[in-house]
């Protein structure tokens, strides 16, 4: 089978791992559900094009592994029931590519002209359908809470959503398409990186040729997959959330002299709440903030739970100029800090290709595609703070900075790097000065003296 041979013969280890995991999901689906009760939702986009060829490969391998080799040539194209929701707002190129692809691979097409939910209701009434392959990726708007096998949402017709490429990134999609040399919709060669309707989709401006605004480079040349949907929404100049309140026409020096900046510190860890570990990092960070003229308005220790982190971030992010999170951070699969930040800002976690590159370089051969959960970052609000002294960038989401330090020495290093990084937003001002008055008198004597003063 040409797809399987192309991927297994490539040198991209990550691609081979992603492919193996996705194909396993496909084979598992065919083992669980009768072939005639499984369908494939195809929309002509890059993700569903990848899924089409993964289904073909998975079906071929499923038949091969089951010993059904009598008609292997006949199953290479996997004549799976294919659903296409055709819209009058679709690009003509999408429609043309969809029908051409269906014809090429001999797919039994069922075209639906209503909305997705109504169409599925009608489809399931006519034909028993237990599972539907869908090209959902974790960065998609409807991916929140889904897994590779996810039942349909409440209120929808009952079926199993099968998501073989749920953990794939934008880069993974293009790596597969280019490695396998399969045909995709021509719009992607014209600068479109994510295709919706003709009313809300334009070529991605990041692919514009500098010499002319009318020529765009192909979609696979987009280097930052986080900006995949840049052509799906109209660009507006939003008011930038200032990490420092020293603005409104004041110079930075004036701001430093007259504005008091405030920060909150959130320490994540059950061990502190249970009393088994003393929180030394929070106290150390307070001293560092005071040393650059920042006031610490709030320090909280919260449970190692997504909701606990989210509630505290939600409370602090609009109250203070900066929020720092300590603890609860990996790179571990059990990390809850970033998930809590994402929930507080109302965004989803999505693979960050730049962070994946750093992880890959750091871990070498120990880093494989199925460990990409370590690179799931809050989508659309994340900025990586790089520094040559740090093995991995620190993560900043709007005015929330997540520190990875596990001890005071690591905190010292990360703090120095933050101060050396302009993007951190840590404008330095005059340090707070503390004066201490000591006495050898006991509390009882002091209380008596205070009482005498009042009398």
From TrEMBL:
Catalyzed chemical reaction(s) = FMN + ATP + H(+) = FAD + diphosphate
From the Swiss-Prot or TrEMBL record, what is one GO molecular function term?
FMN adenylyltransferase activity
Q: Which Pfam families match?
A: MoCF_biosynth (PF00994), PAPS_reduct (PF01507)
Key words of the record: ATP-binding, FAD, Flavoprotein, FMN, Nucleotide-binding, Nucleotidyltransferase, Transferase
Pathway it works in? Cofactor biosynthesis; FAD biosynthesis; FAD from FMN: step 1/1
Q: MoaB/Mog domain: from which residue to which, for each copy?
A: 264-411
Q: What is its EC number?
A: 2.7.7.2
InterPro entries in the cross-refs = MoaB/Mog-like_dom_sf (IPR036425), MoaB/Mog_dom (IPR001453), PAPS_reduct_dom (IPR002500), Rossmann-like_a/b/a_fold (IPR014729)
This chain belongs to the protein called: FAD synthase
Per the UniProt record, the source organism is Urochloa decumbens
């Amino acid at each position: 089978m040409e797809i399987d041979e192309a991927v297994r013969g490539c040198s991209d280890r990550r691609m081979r791992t992603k492919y193996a995991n996705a194909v396993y999901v496909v084979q598992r689906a065919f083992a669980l559900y009768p072939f005639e009760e499984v369908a494939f939702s195809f929309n002509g986009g890059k993700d569903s094009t990848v899924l089409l060829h993964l289904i073909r490969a998975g079906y071929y391998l499923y038949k091969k592994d089951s010993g059904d080799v009598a008609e292997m040539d006949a199953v290479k194209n996997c004549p799976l029931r294919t659903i296409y929701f055709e819209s009058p707002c679709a690009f003509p190129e999408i429609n043309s590519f969809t029908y051409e692809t269906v014809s090429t691979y001999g797919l039994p097409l069922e075209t639906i002209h209503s909305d997705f939910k109504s169409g599925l209701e009608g489809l399931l009434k006519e034909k028993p359908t237990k599972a539907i392959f869908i090209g959902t990726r974790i960065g998609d708007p409807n991916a929140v809470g889904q897994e590779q096998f996810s039942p349909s949402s409440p209120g929808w017709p009952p079926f199993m959503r099968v998501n073989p490429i749920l953990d794939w990134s934008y880069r993974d999609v293009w790596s597969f398409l280019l490695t396998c040399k399969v045909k995709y919709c021509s719009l992607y060669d014209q600068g479109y990186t994510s295709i919706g309707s003709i009313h809300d989709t334009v070529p991605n401006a990041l692919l514009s040729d500098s010499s002319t605004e009318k020529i765009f480079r192909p979609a696979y040349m987009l280097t930052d997959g986080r900006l995949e949907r840049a052509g799906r929404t109209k660009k507006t100049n939003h008011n930038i959330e200032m990490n420092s309140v020293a603005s409104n026409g004041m110079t930075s020096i004036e701001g430093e002299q007259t504005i008091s900046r405030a920060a909150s510190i959130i320490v994540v860890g059950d061990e502190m709440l249970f009393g088994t570990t003393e929180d030394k990092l929070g106290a150390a960070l307070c001293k560092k903030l005071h040393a650059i003229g920042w006031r610490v308005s709030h320090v909280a220790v919260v449970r190692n739970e997504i909701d606990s982190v989210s509630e505290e971030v939600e409370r602090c992010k609009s109250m203070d100029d900066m929020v720092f999170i300590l603890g609860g951070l990996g790179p571990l699969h059990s990390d809850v800090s970033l998930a809590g930040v994402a929930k507080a800002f109302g965004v989803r976690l999505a693979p960050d290709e730049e962070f994946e590159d750093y992880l890959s370089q750091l871990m070498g051969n120990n880093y494989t595609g199925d460990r990409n959960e370590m690179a799931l970052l809050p989508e659309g609000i994340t900025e990586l703070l790089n520094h040559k002294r740090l093995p991995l960038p620190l993560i900043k989401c709007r005015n929330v900075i997540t520190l990875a330090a596990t001890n005071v020495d690591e905190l010292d290093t990360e703090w120095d790097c933050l101060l050396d990084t302009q993007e951190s937003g840590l404008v330095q001002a005059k340090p707070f000065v503390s004066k201490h008055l000591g006495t050898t008198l006991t509390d009882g004597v002091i209380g008596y003296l205070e009482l005498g003063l009042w009398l």
